[in-house]
């Protein structure tokens, strides 16, 4: 009969064998603990499902046996919340990509279009032009003599909108971590900023 047991200490859970203890990791999944008696004392390795079995890396270790460790409830909850928070960014980026409409023309807010708008404005500044002779909008339509001022307004509006969306993402993340938001499907990404002018 094994005298291996899991005990709770002030620091968390530990493996105990004949009065000697070794701290165990707080895991988000059930695991198998492999225990060894070694020249330097008790050693334990945790094996999560699908992972290779841990083996004492030194010499002179004697395997004592295994014991099951239930997932740590607090760690499980933190992982659940972290997984929900990770789902926010793709939703925020999709909302950003919608962009803005200035004088009936849509300017997408995705990173590559923001870069393209910045480069166009830099060109306009260096070349001292007030209109682009040709412009292709985010819906694939072409425009002749397109005002630089409209592009600048769109660029600034996209930046303002992006900043507000990031702030909303932060609010949602805080609500998840506090436990007031438990689902992220169907969240509203409306921010009260006009997307058309």
Task: Walk me through what this model shows.
By secondary structure, this protein is α+β, with helices and mostly antiparallel strands. It has 2 domains: 4-71, no CATH class; 78-178, no CATH class. Helices cover 37% and strands 29% of the residues. It contains 4 helices and 10 strands. The strands form 4 sheets. It has a 3-stranded antiparallel beta sheet with strand order 1-2-3, with no helix packed on it. Strands 5-4-6 form a 3-stranded antiparallel beta sheet, with no helix packed on it. Strands 7-8 form a two-stranded antiparallel ribbon. Strand 4 (31-38) and strand 5 (41-47) form a beta hairpin. Helix 1 packs antiparallel against helix 4 (148-178) and helix 3 (111-127) packs antiparallel against helix 4. The longest helix is centred in the C-terminal third of the chain and has 31 residues, at 148-178.
Distance between the termini: 77 Å
Order of helices and strands: EEEEEEHHEEHEEH
The helix-and-strand class reads alpha+beta
Mean pLDDT: 94
Helix content: 25-40%
Trace the largest sheet across and list its strands: 1-2-3
Estimated radius of gyration = 28 Å
Instruction: Tell the overall outline.
Output: elongated
Total strands: 10
Number of structurally distinct domains: 2
Q: Which regions have little confidence, pLDDT < 50, spanning 5+ residues? A: none
Beta-strand fraction estimate: 25-35%
> Total helix count?
4
- Biggest β-sheet description: 3 strands, antiparallel
């Amino acid at each position: 009969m094994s005298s291996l047991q899991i005990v709770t200490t002030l620091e968390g859970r530990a493996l105990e064998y004949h009065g000697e203890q070794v701290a165990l990791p707080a895991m988000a999944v059930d695991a198998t603990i492999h225990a060894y008696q070694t020249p330097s004392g008790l050693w334990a390795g945790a094996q999560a499902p699908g992972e290779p079995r841990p083996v004492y890396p030194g010499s002179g270790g004697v395997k004592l046996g295994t014991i099951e460790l239930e997932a740590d409830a607090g760690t499980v909850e933190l992982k659940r919340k972290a997984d929900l928070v990770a789902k926010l960014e793709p939703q925020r980026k999709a909302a950003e990509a919608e962009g803005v409409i200035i004088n009936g023309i849509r300017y997408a807010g995705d990173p590559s279009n923001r870069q393209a708008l910045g480069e166009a404005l830099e060109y306009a500044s260096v070349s001292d032009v007030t209109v682009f002779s040709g412009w292709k909008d985010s819906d694939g339509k072409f425009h002749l003599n397109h005002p630089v001022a409209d592009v600048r307004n769109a660029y600034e509006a996209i930046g303002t909108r992006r900043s507000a969306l990031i702030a909303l993402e932060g609010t949602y993340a805080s609500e998840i971590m506090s436990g007031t938001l438990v689902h992220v499907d169907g969240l509203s990404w409306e921010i009260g900023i006009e997307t058309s002018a």
